Amino acid sequence: MIIDFQHHFTPPELTSLPAVKNLSINKGGTTPPYRMPPELTDITAHVRDMAAAGIDHAVLSCGLGMDGTTMEVCGAVNDAMARVCAQSPKQFSSFAHTDPLGGPAALSELARCRHELGMRGVVMVSEPGGTTLDDPRLDPFWETCERLDMFVFVHPSLRPSVGSTMNRYDLVRSLGREFSLAMSTVRLINGGVLDRFEGLRVQMGHLSGGLAVSMDRVRALQDKERMGTVGHPDHGILPKREFDHYIRERLWFDTAGVFGSMPAVRAAVDEFTPDRIVFGTDYPLEILSVEDLSRFVNDIRSMGAAGQAILSGSAAGLMRAD
Fold first, then answer.
1. Separation of first and last alpha carbons in the chain
2. What is the pLDDT of residues 39-64, one digit of tens each?
3. Residue 30's pLDDT band (boundaries 50, 70, 90)?
4. Is the pLDDT of residue 28 over 80?
């Protein structure tokens, strides 16, 4: 079974909510507005294009419930997604949407999604509320995800904290969001989040922002004695185990965000190993046609055993059955 772990859908009834109309991601400014192609709100288009590409199942997520939205919007997204999935359970499931820094109400919504709506994972952004993933204020969220046995999908922040130097040439979307994911991966590891929550399962979007091509540099900087940072209160911090343990034993990575680029996938296979990579397309925001969708599936399949692991085998470890 081929499962798409990064597949975006916006329930059409939500676009008329006053709270949604006021979202900054839908307005102009330093970051381009949130793009909503017609397919994004048309579930029949998803069914059609998935069938044409040979994708059996998609785990849905919604940009309206990811970054800087209210619990009112998150609850509406979760209910609407649950209705869609109930109509087509073989084809669709959904991530839960909540505010990781929202306190007891947000954590209660997470429990409702797990116990009442049957959702096995939750989506968050790489810089929730403008903070970083190793911030101790997120510990109640991580603890709840671990306790509820829900895996966490980290999508790039829609408004990463990259500064004014990226407020031109669409740099926030082309590079800023990817940098945010790569940075967040290192913070999860060196910040001890995966050590504190040993049962936590995390899916990093977009192949962790292309982190594979920088892994040798990251590894070298983990040698604190060689780099002269031993004992430094900020730069001398290390996790309990070797960095690669977390990359190859604790985290998962999805193939979305690269517009179907096979060099990016092959680099990730070399560094992350195929059994830690799950299939993701970013449909319909980056994979722009059913032809591109089909080509991406076929190109990954052509990788043989590694491609088969990405398309279906690796999913079992991330999305555990009840």
1. 17
2. 999 999 999 999 999 999 999 999 88
3. low
4. no
Give the pLDDT band (50/70/90) at residue 29.
Answer: low
- The two tokens of residue 175 are 């590079």
Which amino acid, one-letter code, is at 67? Answer: D
Task: Report pTM.
Answer: 0.94
Residues in a beta bridge with 252: 203
Sign of the alpha-carbon dihedral angle for 246, 251, 257, 263: positive
Residue with tokens 């994911």: 181
Over the stretch 247-289, which tens digit does the pLDDT of each residue have? 999 999 999 999 999 999 999 999 999 999 999 999 999 888 8
Per residue in 2-17, pLDDT (tens digit) is: 999 999 999 998 877 7
C-alpha closest to that of 98 among 76, 127, 65: 65
- The neighbour count for residue 22, using CB atoms within 10 Å, is 10
- Residue count (the chain): 322
CATH of 3-318, one of 2.30.42.10, 3.20.20.140, 1.20.1250.20, 3.40.718.10: 3.20.20.140
What pLDDT, on the 0 to 100 scale, is given for residue 35?
A: 66
C-alpha span between 311 and 297 (Å, rounded): 8
CA distances from 3 to 86, 105, 106, 282, 313 (A): 17, 31, 28, 12, 10
Closest by alpha carbon to 1, among 295, 316, 268? Answer: 316
